[in-house]
Amino acid sequence: MTHLLHLDASARPGFAGKDEHGSHSRHLSHRFVSQWRAHRAQDSVTYRDIGQSPPSFISHDWIASSFTPEDRREAWMKETLAESDRLVDELIAADVLVIGTPFYNFGMPAALKAWVDLIVRPGRTVEIDETKLPEPYVPLLADRPRHAVILTARGGIGYGPGGEMAQMNNLEPNLVTALNFIGTTRIHQIAIEGQETGGEVLAASVEQAQREVDVLVADLQTRFARSPGAHVQPRLTA
């Protein structure tokens, strides 16, 4: 059985095309998960709406607790890390991480950045081995094949790889760096662009992204059916 962790990071609660000011990224991520479950109902999904219920920001107490060895943590430190532990446990359990996120001011929403900060954890998702200087970091989520699917909605055009505005995109590159750092390297990207332009430009982008979501679901499911540990070449689409 395959387990999915589904995150939505949009501040908009509804779906584009169904609700006024609805979210295109939510629409994509829910399409991905719905298509997945339609063909593999036996698989399980954990859903977390960080757009509507944002994680906490890291604090001085969180940093002190995180960098204190587990056997030396006081009770308040364990309580401080409780939320982070839940998020890390969800991530570790997942075979496929599905992230639906908008593109806000050239980067990720604050809620998604807060999630990233809470799941990049010494001793949980990355180890620090000082004998391996100058690169002491050992990713702990490389223990088995895991996939991440980043489904993005952008207001502008040309922010994908090779686009004329690509150098201003700090969303997917940031996420990819963080996920690679902890050991998730099989990453697939699909984006909608042109939300601010609207009209036929947006409609064409939405249609293309939906087709690519359906193709990606079928591709991943075929590979998982053959072997849960099969390597799937990442899809990079803008």
Describe the fold and architecture.
The protein is an alpha/beta fold and 238 residues long. The chain has one domain: Rossmann fold (3-Layer(aba) Sandwich). 38% of the residues lie in helices and 16% in strands. The chain contains 7 helices and 7 strands. The protein has helices at residues 24-39, 60-66, 75-80, 82-93, 110-119, 172-182, 199-226, and strands at 3-8, 44-49, 96-102, 126-128, 137-139, 147-153, 186-192. A 5-stranded parallel beta sheet has the order 2-1-3-6-7, with helices on both faces. Strands 4-5 form a two-stranded antiparallel sheet. Strand 6, helix 6 (172-182) and strand 7 form a beta-alpha-beta unit. Helix 1 (24-39) packs parallel to helix 7. The longest helix is centred in the last third of the chain and has 28 residues, at 199-226. It is globular and about 60 Å long. The model has no long low-confidence stretch (mean pLDDT 94).
What is the secondary structure topology, with strand pairs?
Blueprint: E1 3-8, H1 24-39, E2 44-49, H2 60-66, H3 75-80, H4 82-93, E3 96-102, H5 110-119, E4 126-128, E5 137-139, E6 147-153, H6 172-182, E7 186-192, H7 199-226
Parallel strand pairs: 1-2, 1-3, 3-6, 6-7
Antiparallel strand pairs: 4-5
